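User: For my dataset I need records formatted as: sequence, then structure tokens, nothing else. Please produce one.
Assistant:
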Amino acid sequence: MNAAHIIALVAGIAVLSLNATSVIVVLIVPRSGTSMITYPMRVVRATFRRVARLARTYPTMDRILAVSEPVALVVLLATWLTVTIAGFTLVNYGIDGTTGSQAFSEAGSSVFTLGFTLSHTGGSRVVDFIAAGTGLVLVALQIAYLPTLYGAYNRRETLVTLLQSRAGSPAWGPELLIRHQLVGLVDNMPSLFAEWERWAADVAESHSSYPSLLFLRSPRPQNSWVVSLIAVMDAAALVLAVDPDGAPIESRMVVRMGFTCLRDIAEATGIPFDPDPSPDDAIQLPKEEFDAAYRRLEEVGFPVSRSAADAWPHFRGWRVNYEAVAYTLAATLDAPPARWTGPRALFRSETLEPVRPVDRRPTTGAGETRTA
């Protein structure tokens, strides 16, 4: 064994160790971790984002972006397999001293358990066994990973879909309160906030452990988990600001759990944030937007005990805890450009309005429709 073979053997072991670390961190360790081997996933996301810029309408952009993360997951598996074969190729070359093509053929044959190339040396046969086991374990882990990923995805999307009839699509905090007032469901809001508190805790755990979930888009183009969470927190913050005496304790808890969820995800993805902002800090949402929402709440008869001027500092004091992180996440994930969710460079300042369905009721006359 000459110097070149020794170098190849050491390099092969190093490559395989790096690959194994990446697999363990991404698939097994229940917390977010970084690995240079996952870089191709970022390339896939960036590529799809550039392609989406060419589309002229939001629905077309969404269809393009929806394919991004599934493709990135396939690319990640292909990357792990490719690095595995490269590592065992170097190891085979270092042990046997065969040509590069022979070492590659044996590594590929072993990793994919094809068995068409076998060495006749004892050391290489041991490597073949290890390579075959590595290939099987790698594919098995990825197969087991996908149900875990999509199980968390389905739990997330169930409540997001349910919110569509309550807060519009895309969801908007004031619209949630308006609809509950119009149909007489204000008393149901505590249970809604309690559900979303538990939902936020689930998302905080799953999405900080498996960042791919962040980029899996909702089945409906105008729905988004981050937009929905912002809407629920805005609704709770509005209730606390405009009617503090009538606000249920669940509204306070969902805001707290909501921004805890966003901060956990921000820490996992490297998004900077202020962990202890002052209630007097400025927010990006213009006061004029808040005043317009306040007037709409008054128009439908939503209970308010504070004036808009008195309620604004309190609403700002709640929103400052989550606005910056929420806006950054929404922009990073190219979430639907809903109201009160910050700017989106990808969507050219487009804003989607929640459409309220027409409430049609049977009448004895010629027919009557009204908006509700």
